Amino acid sequence: MKFRNSLYALAIAGACSVSVSSVCAQGFTAQNYAFASSAAGFMTPFDTGIEFTTGPSSAQISSVVLELFDMSFSPASGVFNVSLWNSTSGVPSSLISSDIGVSYTTTGSGFSAFTKTLTSSDLPNLSAVSLSATSTYMLVFSNQTNFDFGILFDSGVTYATSGSWTVNGSYRKSSGTWQNFAAGNFAISINTASPSPVPEASGSFAGLGLAMAGLYQLRRRRQNTVTE
Predict the structure, then answer these.
(1) Structural domain of residue 223, as residue ranges?
(2) Same domain, 70 and 138
(3) pLDDT tens-digit map of 87-105
(4) End-to-end Cα separation, the chain, in angstroms
């Protein structure tokens, strides 16, 4: 009976050994920025990046919010690229994923601020990436087709973080070299969502199968003993 109870316990453990990834709110929100001649600047044609380190849980990017300023006096449109890189000390090392040709349209009001929110429909590739826990990444914006807008920055910009994330700094690639952007921090925010529930490795289910097989063999032995 003791052996049989142990097998039942193993079967139950195998049946329940399915993990569901879940995270609390994670990401960061730019704050304390303002549109003014001394607090805004256009980043084009430079590559612009913001480096961050995730907290103890995995996550997926659900949206990116850019605070921009309009440099056109009539509505303009074009595309730019957004990419996600592994990064160390402000230097992106290996490309993880990218979305090419993200579209934009400016207000055309001339040197005024506006907000551009990039959702999963704008970033289908990046939003599918599962960000690993306690890992450092850089989100890079590049190849704007026209000089229509720039990302707001300010020396007073700070970030409200959640989920134990940290923002390591704002960077710009100039003359082929990534450099800390000393003039201020970029007004960029990242929101995340919980990864889709994913079962553990199939070993859990294999364990369940072995346990059930053991129960079946035990039952057969008991039946044979009774018959004999």
Answers:
(1) 2-19+201-227
(2) yes
(3) 999 999 999 999 999 988 8
(4) 20
